[in-house]
Amino acid sequence: MNSQSPEAILPNPNPVTDIKLNQNKSSLLWKMLQILIGLVAFVFVLTRIDQKELLKVIAQVNYFILLGAVLNTLFMTYLMGWRWQLLIKVKYKVSSLTLFGQYLTAQFFNLFTPGAVGGDLARLLRVGKITGDSSFVFTSIVVERLVSLVGLLLSSLVGLYLGRDYLNNPNNYYFVVGLLIISIFLCLLLFSKIAMKLFLNLVIRFELLLKRKLISKTIEKIGNHLAIFSQKPLLLLSIILTTFLVRTTWTISCWLVAQALGLNIPLFVLMALFAVVDLARMLPISPPNGIGVREYLLVLLLAPLGISNTQAALFSFLAYSLLMVNGLIGGLVYTSQAMLEKE
Question: Helices (H), strands (E): how many in the chain?
Fold first, then answer.
């Protein structure tokens, strides 16, 4: 009798199951790394806070000005919904108030996910259901994100230029200009029919190797939608300008928080610094809502302006709490919508 090895007796492993297990492990490790980064950064900030100074700063907070910051941030969220409407109305009519509500809901999900992924997914599902065209809605979100990145960098460039007397670092101009040029190039490349056709051909070849259809049809639909937007340069320009308005409104909210704390930080300096911090919050490696990272960066960036670690940490927490308030309101909107749909 021929003997069999233990490996021959065992059933053949399922490669699909192995791939899923590896993906789950990688996802878990990535989440743990994000949490670790946030915790390390947060602990770094906490160890540099003077408790006595913190109590003094809190006692002097002007809550009336803080209320103005909250209302101004709500207005910023409405502008974001209106900006999205400019893209959606290329094919569909959706009211700006509806999209305002969806942006509030998105900010609720952004409290728990890094890089605004959860918020974008919530917007896609809801507005995709309203329009019945998820691929177009997805494309509108992609266009909004890419073109908005140009607007964000533009606001950073303006802030650096107007606040140059305070920052005293001319190398930043070249860095931001380089990022701006790269972002514009990527946007133009994505809207190019030639680039999309090349990308689609690569996907089709990959599918032929696997002998299985994957996402070529979806990419083709997205490419067709992008072609529509590429034929509307004035629309893209208006999105960039609206993003600049959104960033300016957000900077004013942060400036109001600084005023409420009695901190003398120029408006245009905040425009540049918060652009840097918000870019860091968008990175996939960033923890949910950038907690820890945003405080760490602002403590470092505000130190040259004579702002103490305690003041900078409290300022960062209060400034980004404005977005948390929007998120909590979005949570109420989300739950009320769910209850109405059940009825």
Answer: 15, 0
